[in-house]
Design goal:
Length: about 70
């Protein structure tokens, strides 16, 4: 089974961005690295949580559609 993976990081946290990119390179499953500009790892900045939920929602919808197409 190949479960789609979404890796998210705040754009202000270069270390986590690099770690997520390195992890993504090792994945054989469908994946995406999403970087939220202007955010740190807790996503506490004003308006950032909305960006995160939008990216996650889009990822779930696109992953579900992709999984249905290959089923």
């Amino acid at each position: 089974m190949r479960t789609p993976v979404l890796l998210m990081a705040g754009g202000n946290d270069g270390t986590v961005v690099r770690l997520n990119q390195a992890a993504a390179e090792r994945l054989s499953a469908p994946h995406r690295v999403s970087v939220v500009n202007g955010a740190w790892y807790l996503f506490e900045e004003p308006g950032v949580l909305e960006q995160v939920t939008g990216a996650v929602s889009e990822w779930f919808v696109s992953s579900a559609v992709s999984q249905e197409a290959t089923a």
